[in-house]
Amino acid sequence: xxxxxxxxxxxxxxxxxxxxxxxxxxxxxxxxxxxxxxxxxxxxxxxxxxxxxxxxxxxxxxxxxxxxxxxxxxxxxxxxxxxxxxxxxxxxxxxxxxxxxxxxxxxxxxxxxxxxxxxxxxxxxxxxxxxxxxxxxxxxxxxxxxxxxx
Length: 150
Description:
2 domains, 1 helix
């Protein structure tokens, strides 16, 4: 009987602290995915929000250069009319230009923003205005960039 009480005490101890650890773990995971614990997340560059045009890679440099690659995910040729980084037109790009279906193009543009080395950017909007080749209706697609300035 004495041994049975020790086992019951051990189980109560495990249950009490087990639930506490479980709740702390749930809170930390929630904070991590809400962005409040960004210092834990790897600072690789990420892009969210694009469907027709995919940004497959980008780099933001401290000298105001914005290097990125665009992939045409549509089945039709697209004509790019304008690109805006953080709601400002990017420089050093001649418009309009075409992207064939399945084609990737590389762009070296200038942005009117100042960033510092190793600065972390989060959810900076990138807007791409385009038409389907031969059409007149200008479409717009907005995605969000997050990552580290190099």
